[in-house]
Design goal:
single chain, mainly alpha, about 80% helix, 2 helices
Length: about 70
């Protein structure tokens, strides 16, 4: 997986965060569809962190292979 695919996946995760944030009922954030939206936001944030770690590890691997 190259850097372009990772960036596209990060953008999609940010889009999912934006979409799920519109589904949250701020009066009752832990009931009904709001809890599902919060879980979706948490999952998207986890995906972003994992993709950023993947990009960083690829950079480290590239530096190691250059030596």
């Amino acid at each position: 997986m190259n850097k372009t695919v990772s960036i596209i996946l990060i953008v999609l995760a940010v889009g999912l965060i934006a979409f799920n944030s519109t589904l949250i009922d701020f009066e009752n954030p832990l009931e009904g569809n709001s809890i599902i939206a919060l879980i979706g936001i948490a999952a998207s944030l986890c995906a972003i962190v994992l993709l950023l770690l993947f990009i960083a590890s690829k950079k480290i691997q590239k530096k190691i292979n250059e030596d």
